[in-house]
Amino acid sequence: MKVGLELVLSENPWLGRAPHYAEVRELALTAEAAGFDSLWLYDHLLYRTDISPAEGIWEGWTMLSALADATQRVELGTLVSCGAFRNPALLAKMAVTLDEVSGGRLTLGLGAGWNDAELTAFGMPLDHRVSRFEEALQIIVPLVREGRVSYEGQYHRAVDCEILPRGPRPAGPPILVAGFGPRMLRLVAKYADCWNGGYAARAEDLNELRSRLTDACVEVGRDPSSLAVTTELKVSYPDLTPTPNLFGDRFATGSATAVAATLSEFERAGFAHLMCTCSPNTPEALQRLAAAVACYRESSAA
Predict the structure, then answer these.
(1) What is the DSSP letter of 142?
(2) What is the Cα Rg of the chain in Å?
(3) Are 68 and 32 contacting, i.e. CB atoms less than 8 angstroms apart?
(4) Contacts of 24 (CB under 8 A, 6+ apart)
(5) Which among 255, 254, 301, 244 is positioned nearest to 277, based on CA atoms?
(6) Strands (DSSP E) along 139-272, which ranges?
(7) 107 and 144 in contact (C-beta within 8 Å)?
């Protein structure tokens, strides 16, 4: 099982601001040297609610492009790119280009989007979100995998579109889709190489969703075992910073041995890749998490 690290690009409590690129880069290089398999960036433009002021975040694809050049070995991915943010043919072109820059290390993570505040602020549509995303996939997937598409839909079109040059991998970067509702799970089953189940603290947290994903695969005629299952593991070190309120209050925590045991639990449950969201996203917390990953790998090899 691969283990990755999510890099925080947004304003956060441990810095009291958004990190500078130099800090993001240094954390990425530290994670690569520590043996993490992958690095992942969120794709958001703004966080804001009716009861809180705006919270800033750097644009993810620009940062990911810089990290593709800064790193050498580690895989890179988006968790996940919002389908509403960019023209789908352009997004496919960006993905193939970034795969070239990284030497074939990109995973293209995609989703329909959920944050109404940022969509409204940046002038993007809120309506028919899944229908728009389904049309976007019918452009992105063939362009990434085959290099050509012609498609005319209600929301998107691409007329005799080609991606040239093709990049380092004949079939392009693998496509990850995050989704939870019935329509989204069918789209995962139909188009994706891997699925992300969102935030979890224990493998059992996703049992129901995984069962529904299996049903969706059967419905579209796909072997469920051909779809890699991934999730975002919430890890917290509350002695370094208070545990955040992040989609529920359950986090993996404790000693390297304790967190390694959690990693092993996900491996036994058949997960192919864990993307760790570590609170705080600091060198000290990363050192602890790296020790847990090393402990997990030693126990798996035994």
Answers:
(1) H
(2) 19
(3) no
(4) 7, 9, 58, 63, 67
(5) 244
(6) 148-152, 157-162, 175-178, 194-200, 228-236
(7) no
Q: For the chain, how far is it from start to end, CA to CA, in angstroms?
A: 15
User: How many CB atoms neighbour CB 232 within 10 A?
Assistant: 22
3-state secondary structure of 119: helix
Which of these ranges, 165-174, 219-228, 237-246, has the smallest mean pLDDT?
Answer: 237-246
Distance in angstroms (rounded) separating the CA atoms of residues 185 and 177: 9
Residue 280: is the preceding peptide bond cis (ω within 30°)? yes
Sign of the torsion angle spanned by Cα atoms 140, 145, 151, 157: positive
Q: Whose CA is closest to 187, among 223, 155, 213, 225?
A: 213
Q: What is the pLDDT of residue 243?
A: 82
What number is the average pLDDT over the span 204-224?
Answer: 97
What is the number of other CB atoms lying within 10 angstroms of the CB of residue 129?
19
Question: What is the reported pTM?
Answer: 0.96
Q: DSSP 3-state assignment of 176?
A: strand
Residue with structure tokens 């993490």? 36
Amino acid of residue 151: Y
Model pLDDT for residues 153-206, shown as the tens digit of each residue: 999 999 999 999 999 999 999 999 999 999 999 999 999 999 999 999 899 999
C-alpha 164/C-alpha 96 separation (Å) is: 9
Whole-number Å distance between alpha carbons of 66 and 269: 35
Tokens standing for residue 246? 């992040």
Longest Cα–Cα distance in the chain: 56
Place of tokens 């988006």: 78
Tell me the one-letter amino acid at 190. K
**Contact status, residue 63 vs residue 9, Cβ threshold 8 Å:** yes
Confidence band for 250, pLDDT divided at 50, 70 and 90: confident
